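call fold(seq) -> tokens
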Amino acid sequence: MVSKKFKIKRFDPEKDIPGGKPRWEEFTVEMDPFERLLDGLVRIKEAQDGSLTFRLSCAHGMCGSCAMKINGKNALACQTLAKNTPEAVVLEPLPVFPVIKDLVVDMDPFFEKIGAVMPWLVADGPHPERERSQSPEELGKIMDAIKCIMCGCCTSSCPVYRADRDYLGPAALVKAARFILDSRDATWKERLKAVSGENGFWMCHSIYNCYEVCPRSIDITGYIAWLKRLAVKKMFFPPKGQR
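ret:
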């Protein structure tokens, strides 16, 4: 067993002033080296402070619920093992998004950006009797993007999004690329137009923060670069202010 000191940034809307000075609290937890930080948070809530608030669901890196800032870097608490962290673990809510309570943030702005790129399949022709088929090669083009669990780690680590909240952000752009690349979809022009405007992919500076924090190791910057190349090929040029 190892002793871990959890230093957690707290905010209670019923007690603290929004935007006021951060309130930090520390907890000590005995953990097996192969336990996850999420296990430690659960133990704190169950045995030390029942008011501690955080999100969790699958606890296996598939839902993205437990995304937070861990020792200065966005990550999933369920993927971070105790043995891979220092004795003192600093936990904060995801940056940029409004804090609801403690480690829980308001993800509505994030999902609004996802919705803006039409994240659903639009196919031509009559409905098939079974599924719309795809070759293994066609599936391979979107396989990496499909892995996105919409945890928000990438968007909240993006310096462009931090500077301009109107920017669609990396997660929304990957979602757009996923459907533009899908051989079954018939609306690539509409999708490309939706993400090539003044708040779209031309704002990306290819800093790679998004790729570095992605818990699914998706080549996010690569997809955005592909969108730019496709836009130039199809004559979708940057707005005047971004040329």
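The longest helix spans residues 220-233.
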